[in-house]
Protein: Carbohydrate ABC transporter permease
Amino acid sequence: MKRVLLYVTLVVGAVVTVFPYLLVLLTAFKSSGQLHTTQPWLPGVPPTTANLTKLLGGEFPHYILNTLVMTIALTTGQLVFTTFAAYAFARLRFPGRDVLFWLFVATMMVPVAVTVIPLFLIMRELELVNTWAGLLIPYVLGTPYGIFLMRQFFRSLPAGLEEAARIDGAGQLTILLRVMLPLCKPALGTLAIITVISSWNSFLWPLIITSDEQTKVITVALAALKVGIGVDYAQIMAGGLIALVPMIAIFVFFQRYIVRSVVLTGLK
Structure:
């Protein structure tokens, strides 16, 4: 009986989780008429690709390209700068190291909405509003979560590896690049996947800092589809499907790295 209840609970949870994605898929292939004449959980007969064709024939591919560029830039910056910062917090000894680290990690408790206005004012004073630099700079140098993740992994590596490298005459940078980083591939893969997902789904900061078509990303473009009277929900769902496909593919193929991030941050 316990096993039956367990499986029933898991099935119900799976249905509740998957249903919104199924709704997006079904609605994306409905016409405006089918949207109002069929139940939301039933497919349109016959299905239509007009919504996808309309979006992909306009500016939407450009927004996808902008999102891809932003995601690659943020992921690259996160991997580089986060690794150096995490290694310093994990292995180097300097006054106030632990206090500085925990103060930095404590910023994760500050809501993003609280920092948006100060960040925008700083970007405005630097004349970086509506530019790629203004879009990327606040988050390309690393995040508290990423540094915490990499620090935990560095601390799990044997200190004897560094001592052996120092005996062989290796400097600090050589130890990091040639000894530690090859051992950090699982953690780096985890950080890369998490950064790609968060960057692709980023909405609030791109919405505030950009207004030009040249820097508009896919999440902002989706929000713009809802402006006005007589919203075409089928078209919005088609745009949502386009935005969802890369993320679903990443989760399916790299979910073990996402699960591993929980393990790395939860264990010493």
Observations:
- The mean pLDDT is 87.
- The chain has 14 helices and no strands.
